[in-house]
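Kindly review both lines to help learners:
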Amino acid sequence: MNDNTAEHPGPPAPPIYVWVLAAIIAGIEILFQLADAGILPWPDLRWHGYLLLAFFDPLFEAWLNGEKVPMIAWTGTISHVFAHGGAIHMALNTAAFLALGGMVANVLGPARFAILFLATALGGVLTFAAITDFRGPMVGVSGVLFGLIGALKRWEWRYIQIAGAPATQFWRTIIVLIVINVLLGFYFTMGGGLAWEAHLGGFIAGFLVAGPLAPRLAGPSPI
C-alpha cells in the first residue's frame, strides 16, 4: 500500500512564537467574552481593554500635532492587533494568522518575522489613519494578515519574473482580495466595521518589506 502521507507530508506546523501570538490574541478576546457574559466581575472589561490596546485615530492625530495625549495614542499603532471586536472576529483572524503566519514564519525565522509583523501592523494603521476619519476604536490583526499575503505575493511575483511563469494566479488573487474587501465594505456599512484601509496598507507594507527580508527568495504563492 502506498503511503501518500509520507510522500506529501504537507506544510510544517507554525513555529512556537506564532502559536504564542495567536494564544495572546485568543486569550484577550476570551477574557472579554467572559466579562461580557458576567462570568468575570468586570462588565466594562472590553471597553477598558480597548482603551489600553485599540488604535484611536483622533488621539493619534492629536499626538502628531504635539498635543498631550495618553500613551495609547502611539502604542495603539501596534497593540491594536491583539484586541478584536468579538468571538467570530477573533476566531477567523486567529485561524488565518496561524495558517499564513506559519507559512511565512517558517521561511523568515523569528527576527525577520517580527520585523514583518511590526511593519505590516504599522503600514495598516498608518494607511487607516491617513484615509479615514473614524473616531471609534480600531482593533484586529487583519492588517497583518493582509501583510502576510502581500509577502507571499511578493515572492510569487519574483518567481514569475525569474521563471517566466504566467501571472494569471497572481492577478486572480489580487482581484479576489479586492472583491472581498468591497463586498465586506458594503456589508459592514455601520460603525466602521471593516477597516479596509488597514488591509490595503498592510498588504502594501508586506509586499514592500518581504523583498529586503528575503532578497533571494522566489516561489509560487500557495494562495
Summary: The first strand starts at residue 55 and ends at 56.
